């Protein structure tokens, strides 16, 4: 699509990411044929899905003359880590506004944030300012000092950022043809809505036949955000593009016990994939989504003759910021 190619984009991700069959994992589950889209291999600061979104967001920041990038997330935010890396790659400063209690040690993504020399602001969830309010306040302070801040919301989930997953959907369709495999479902973790909105929009625009199924890492209602981002994508591409409720498949059964805390099912899913295929997933997003996929297969949600593509969105560095040894 010509309009998509004209929107400014800075290559930050190593793409196309490979699609890998996981026959031993599939055999253990005794259900559909499963493949994994390795978006953990996008390359930017240990990789992950945010690299695709940042290609468009950082290009926009450059066009607008920004010299400092601000974003927000949890203490072990994968998005924050990758945003800091993208900022450094383009010669900008990075400010990360992270929700949590005080930092007691720098491990996992926090250690990588330090290596990247990002400014870290910790916002107490019980404090007077929300994370977003603290980020916008910091942006105003930077403006007053003569700097040019560019603010990226949680997960980079805007219509512009989601264009990265419009391109990913096109990539999946092209790889599917080369492989001679037609996927029935594309299953992925969902934490802010941009990945699902981009995949649904992309499959509509480029003729994909698969359905997109998001397994939530939080209990937030993502459907309104997915619809909103879909409309933003349409405006950017000068198209009448809407995402209907019938196209949105969301599951909220697997985020427990709460956001950011690995569930026992996620730990078991991580072990199973690692010990059958040598692939490591993170404990917060991909681990919980993988646990959901396993359980849904056991419950017969996906038919035995179907082919499923699971999008590995990254997040493994967070493992090193959690005390998980006794759980493995």
Automatic annotation (TrEMBL):
<keyword id="KW-0663">Pyridoxal phosphate</keyword>
<comment type="similarity">
    <text>Belongs to the ACC deaminase/D-cysteine desulfhydrase family.</text>
</comment>
<feature type="active site" description="Nucleophile">
    <location>
        <position position="77"/>
    </location>
</feature>
<dbReference type="InterPro" id="IPR036052">
    <property type="entry name" value="TrpB-like_PALP_sf"/>
</dbReference>
<dbReference type="InterPro" id="IPR027278">
    <property type="entry name" value="ACCD_DCysDesulf"/>
</dbReference>
<feature type="domain" description="Tryptophan synthase beta chain-like PALP">
    <location>
        <begin position="12"/>
        <end position="314"/>
    </location>
</feature>
<protein>
    <submittedName>
        <fullName>D-cysteine desulfhydrase</fullName>
    </submittedName>
</protein>
<feature type="modified residue" description="N6-(pyridoxal phosphate)lysine">
    <location>
        <position position="50"/>
    </location>
</feature>
<dbReference type="InterPro" id="IPR001926">
    <property type="entry name" value="TrpB-like_PALP"/>
</dbReference>
<dbReference type="GO" id="GO:1901605">
    <property type="term" value="P:alpha-amino acid metabolic process"/>
</dbReference>
<dbReference type="InterPro" id="IPR005966">
    <property type="entry name" value="D-Cys_desShydrase"/>
</dbReference>
<dbReference type="GO" id="GO:0019148">
    <property type="term" value="F:D-cysteine desulfhydrase activity"/>
</dbReference>
<dbReference type="Pfam" id="PF00291">
    <property type="entry name" value="PALP"/>
</dbReference>
């Amino acid at each position: 699509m010509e309009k998509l190619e004209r929107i400014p984009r800075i290559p930050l991700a190593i793409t196309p990411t490979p699609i890998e069959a996981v026959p031993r994992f599939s055999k253990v589950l005794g259900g559909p044929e499963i493949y994994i889209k390795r978006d953990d291999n996008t390359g930017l600061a240990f990789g992950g899905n945010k690299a695709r979104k940042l290609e468009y967001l950082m290009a926009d920041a450059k066009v607008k003359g920004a010299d400092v990038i601000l974003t927000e997330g949890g203490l072990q935010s994968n998005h924050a880590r990758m945003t800091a890396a993208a900022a450094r790659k383009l010669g900008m400063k990075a400010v990360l506004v992270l929700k949590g209690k005080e930092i007691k040690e720098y491990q996992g993504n926090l250690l990588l944030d330090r290596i990247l020399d990002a400014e870290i602001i910790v916002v107490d969830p019980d404090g007077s300012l929300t994370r977003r309010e603290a980020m916008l306040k910091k942006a105003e302070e930077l403006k007053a000092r003569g700097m040019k801040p560019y603010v990226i919301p949680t997960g980079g989930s805007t219509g512009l950022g989601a264009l990265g997953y419009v391109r990913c959907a096109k990539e999946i369709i092209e790889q599917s043809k080369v492989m001679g495999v037609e996927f029935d479902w594309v299953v992925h973790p969902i934490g802010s809505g941009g990945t699902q909105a981009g995949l649904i929009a992309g499959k509509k625009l480029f003729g994909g036949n698969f359905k997109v199924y998001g397994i939530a890492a939080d209990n937030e209602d993502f459907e309104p955000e997915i619809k909103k981002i879909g409309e933003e994508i349409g405006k950017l591409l000068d198209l009448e593009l809407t995402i209907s409720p019938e196209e949105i498949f969301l599951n909220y059964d697997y985020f427990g016990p709460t956001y950011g805390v690995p569930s026992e099912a996620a730990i078991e899913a991580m072990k199973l994939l690692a010990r059958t295929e040598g692939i490591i997933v993170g404990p917060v997003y991909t681990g919980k989504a993988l646990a959901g996929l396993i359980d849904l297969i056991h419950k017969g949600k996906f038919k035995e003759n179907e082919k499923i593509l699971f999008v590995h969105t990254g997040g493994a560095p967070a493992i090193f910021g959690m005390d998980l040894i006794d759980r493995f």
